[in-house]
Amino acid sequence: MTDIEPVSPTAAADRNQPWWALRLIAVVGILLSLFQLWAAGIQPLGLFFQRPIHLGFILVLCFLIYPVTGDRPRGAIGWVIDGTLILCGVLVGFWVPANIDAIANAIFPRTQDVVVGVITTLVVLEAARRAIGLAMTLIGALFIVYAFAGNRGELPFLADWLPGILNHRGYTLDRLASQLTLGAEGIYGIPLGVAATFIFVFVLFGAFLEVTGAGKFFIDLAYASTGRQRGGPAKAAVIASAGMGSISGSAIANVVTTGAFTIPLMKRLGYRPAQAGGIEAAASTGGQIMPPLMGAGAFLMSEFTRIPYIEIVLISIFPAVLYFGAVYLLVHIAALKQGLKGLPASELPRVRDVLKEGWHFLLPLGILVWLLVAGYSPMRVGFYAILSVMASAALRAVLSYLQHDRTAEGAMAMVKAGFWKTVEALELGARNAVAVSVACAVAGIIVGVVGLTGLGLKFSAMMLAFSGGNLFLALILVVIASLILGMGLPVTAAYIVLIILVGPALQNEFGVPLIIAHLVVFWWSQDSNVTPPVALAGFAGAAIANSGPMETSVQAWKYAKGLYLIPLFMIYNEPIILGGPLPLVLWNGLLAVMALTAFAAAIEGYLFGPMKTWMRAVAAIGTVGCFWPSFTVEAVGLALIAATLTLNWMGNGGGDPKVA
Description:
Blueprint: H1 11-15, H2 19-41, H3 47-65, H4 75-98, H5 100-105, H6 111-131, H7 134-148, H8 173-181, H9 190-212, H10 214-226, H11 232-248, H12 251-269, H13 273-286, H14 297-305, H15 309-337, H16 351-358, H17 362-374, H18 378-404, H19 408-453, H20 455-467, H21 471-486, H22 491-509, H23 514-524, H24 536-545, H25 549-559, H26 562-572, H27 575-578, H28 582-604, H29 613-627, H30 631-650
Helix pairs in contact: 2-3, 2-9, 2-19, 3-4, 3-9, 3-19, 4-6, 6-7, 6-8, 6-19, 7-19, 9-14, 9-18, 9-19, 10-11, 10-16, 11-12, 11-13, 11-15, 12-13, 12-24, 13-15, 13-24, 13-25, 15-26, 15-28, 17-18, 18-19, 19-22, 20-21, 20-22, 21-22, 22-23, 23-26, 24-25, 28-29, 28-30, 29-30
């Protein structure tokens, strides 16, 4: 449909790599993926074996993929620097598993363990600088300095610079190194543990789907389903992004894959370039909150809350549907306002043909859901899901071979193609996991310092003081903090940092239930993808749409409003998450649907037709009423919305498509 090719974030660096370095990257990546599969499905390992070995592989891969020279060739000096760091990565992966007995039995940390701990921390920060950006490294370093800044720490002179509530005793190098690298509360803590188990296996699952062509299947299926409708390509972007987002695990990756097809078609249909890029960015961001995978969020939430993964997936379905429904409605309204039509049937694939070619991609997803419902651990589910992808791809190839080519040469070509596809997926999965694993390792530094210094409780006290005990003001502070953190951190890291800092306050001081606090923080940690001035998914959409980055980001922010409203609904209308009597759940579900519909109509000034200013104002008031923690106010808000939308419907031909 378009000649725009998605570009891998490592493509520029790869172009300047010698052939043997690319082969080495492939070998290390394949070995990492095979190690993870072995640990996931054959021989589970203890945390002080699994996590350090995983981190060692990731560090070696990171320093191979991202040269110290950036996009330029390394040269001799560059290889000396990176070679030293690669050896440090090997040391990190080897040290704790090889010395676990001595480390466990030592009363005080040994000098050599402290030295390796310092090396581990430094190479993790450098890996973060290369794979994620300088901001992540600076935040990790800032927390380390904070741990040292106390009267009994390595940097006692900084104690006078800390406000009273943030002051603490300070810690020595030995104590901090032990906290960060010799226990389960630092670098080898929960964030890296999740990255080394659940996240990697599902990233690898996504890589297998991508290599075997699942992305094209979901995009074609979305086009076949919605392409003839008004604004069809934009609606296809919403649906395709819902499917692709769970596969790619990244809003930006989602934009460059689905957006390469959807954005040019939206422009051709009549959407403005910035509008097309913004719609794709908003839809792609929703992929991170879409079950069953939800990027890395569901796995992390499960570990932090100790709530089974399948429960988190089930309670996240309705909010995710609300989000995509809101984006879909905004897209539909934009198409009506601009008088846009759908694509002609001759330019679209047929649902029957798409399913005929790609039906086998539905098998792994069905098996994945069935295993989750059956109660298997997410790690084992990911292992079997990968095997099911390989089996379904092999089945499809065999059927194609039996239908078209039954020669010995054809059989050999089929086996050879399958082997190289498998190798490609193993390498791609390892490459895709580097950034999130490094982010989780740095998040472990933050977790370790917060636990050592008691910063989480202090932050809760500050949050309570600034908000004056008002929950709504506290939530505004959380939104601002998530946006600021998201400017420099990946969404996974932003979620971890934010939930560590504000989670205790939301739960203990404001009474927000545990799972809702985590869901709200996770949703709002996505906002840096679509909120100016730093809207990473919006910038990616702008690059494909050839539009202004800021204008595109504003459009993305506009279409992704559900990202802000739905978490508020979770807090003020808890039954949509926590459940309860069926009438109460249905009532709150109806409120959510009507409030989002009214909000979309109010900001666009259009639903069945143009809305007068007073109607938009009434719809907005009704929306606020639906969020109010009072049944009477909710009922009044719902009545205002129903009356306003009914008047709009009647005043524009009663829903007659010729009029609307």
